Design the sequence.
């Protein structure tokens, strides 16, 4: 697997001595973003199939119908992981492959795909971390109300039991719901993601049902003998646009909605003040379910968020739908940017980890960085793909984790987003996050310089 490459030869990286023993290096992906094979072996439709088919929803008009064709090329992809020497691989299970109608009859062929994948990972020495829901909700469940309906949380628990029983003996770690805040805000409030609803604050019931689904799935997985169960919550440090009271209030509200609304039910068993009253169902009973202890707390981190009050003179971030929302996301000045335009702020990861520790103290279990990465469109050159900016990004963020660890935060792993370039939701194939380049016309995989660099970092730790 090792090829000479400009970065791996020229760039000498001091070893990451500040990370604890047993720290896991991993990479993450998600089913709809890499698998393709959406019609294969009895898979049912998901909300993302439907969404992508609607004109104007995805920037380049594409879909995950083929994606990286991982459904057929998984063995080659596991070989790439073996070449990296990954400790762990985080993937997601497509609910509509296992239960094409969302509930009821199990599709044995769909389940068998994950069974083979898990065995191959173990064979390659890579610990499987399986996410139950990374956004590809079975369309029949959306037709019944999706996450606005309590029934979806109950169906989710049934699905968790099915996969927990099938794979629980071998999956090392489980993640329930990926980023319930993104599903609520982008899927149900602003409509940037599937299912494309624009309910603004009326989307709050979706938050509650995603959280309830998480809690019920934790129970179901434990009952099935799961080895370890956690979550993957997207967190961002929030900074106020200016020092004005209006901007600080807007930033506080955003912080509450984005960070605290999801972390606090899980970790403290309560909603931030005022929010419990807005939620449906027997909220107190549900919170007891949602707060079931976790083995690890997964954090997905990309960048900080700067927030101002409506009417601000600051520059709003390109595509943020503001509508009637009481805050505006604005540009964070003074930092390098990824190809996606996101500010590169490794200190934001350290600060986020310190903030979690400060806010939740002993209620915070061991933290795993379940996603962290960047998109750059580096060209394929005759002698490789020289993604030095990704190397710098990963190096900076791993050092930020070291700093958080030395300040007393228990962090047990770092899973980079992503193993492969893939289907980036509403951005289609325009954003490349992978350690491995994918030529979508030929499905050829080419490891980038960052792949060699990451392999060396992992080897150096051993
Ligand atoms: C996360 C998401 C991933 C990936 C990443 C990069 O929010 O979980 O699926 O798309 O962002 O944008």
Sequence:
């Amino acid at each position: 697997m090792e090829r000479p490459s400009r970065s791996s030869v020229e760039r000498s990286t001091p070893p990451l001595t500040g990370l604890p023993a047993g720290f896991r290096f991993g990479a993450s992906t998600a089913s709809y973003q890499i698998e393709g094979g959406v019609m294969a072996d009895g898979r049912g439709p998901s909300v993302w199939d439907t969404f992508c088919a609607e004109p104007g929803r995805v920037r380049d008009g594409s879909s995950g119908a083929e994606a990286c064709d991982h459904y057929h090329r998984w063995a080659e992809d596991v070989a790439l992981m073996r070449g990296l020497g990954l400790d762990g691989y985080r993937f997601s299970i497509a609910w509509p492959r296992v239960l094409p109608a969302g509930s009821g009859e199990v599709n044995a062929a769909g389940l068998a795909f994950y069974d083979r994948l898990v065995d191959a990972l173990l064979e390659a020495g890579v610990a499987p971390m399986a996410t139950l829901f990374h956004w590809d909700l079975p369309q029949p469940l959306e037709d019944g109300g999706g996450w606005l309906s309590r029934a979806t949380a109950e169906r989710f628990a049934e699905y968790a039991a099915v996969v927990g029983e099938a794979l629980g003996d071998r999956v090392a770690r489980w993640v329930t719901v990926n980023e319930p805040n993104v599903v609520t805000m982008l899927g149900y409030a602003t409509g940037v993601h599937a299912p494309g609803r624009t309910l603004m604050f009326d989307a709050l019931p979706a938050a509650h049902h995603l959280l309830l689904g998480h809690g019920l799935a934790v129970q179901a997985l434990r009952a099935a003998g799961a080895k370890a169960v956690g979550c993957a919550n997207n967190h961002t440090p929030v900074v106020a646009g200016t020092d004005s009271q209006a901007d600080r209030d807007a930033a506080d509200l955003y912080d509450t909605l984005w960070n605290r609304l999801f972390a606090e039910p899980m970790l403290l068993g309560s909603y931030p003040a005022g929010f419990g009253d807005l939620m449906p169902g027997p909220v107190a009973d549900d919170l007891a379910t949602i707060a079931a202890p976790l083995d690890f707390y997964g954090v997905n981190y990309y960048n900080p968020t700067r927030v101002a009050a409506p009417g601000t003179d600051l520059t709003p971030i390109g595509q943020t739908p503001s509508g009637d929302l009481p805050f505006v996301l604005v540009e964070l000045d003074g930092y390098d940017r990824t190809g996606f335009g996101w500010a590169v702020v490794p200190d934001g990861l350290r600060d986020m980890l310190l903030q979690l520790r400060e806010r939740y103290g002993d209620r915070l279990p061991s933290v795993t960085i379940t996603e962290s990465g960047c998109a750059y469109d580096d060209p394929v050159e005759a002698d490789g793909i020289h993604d030095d900016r990704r190397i710098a990004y990963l190096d900076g963020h791993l050092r930020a984790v070291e700093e958080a660890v030395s300040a007393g935060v228990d962090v047990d792993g770092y899973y980079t987003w992503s193993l492969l370039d893939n289907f980036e939701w509403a951005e289609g194939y325009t954003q490349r996050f992978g350690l491995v380049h994918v030529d979508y016309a030929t499905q050829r995989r080419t490891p980038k310089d960052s792949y060699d660099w990451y392999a060396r970092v992992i080897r150096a730790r051993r």
About this structure: Confidence is low (pLDDT under 50) at residues 1-10. The chain is about 40% helix and 15% strand.
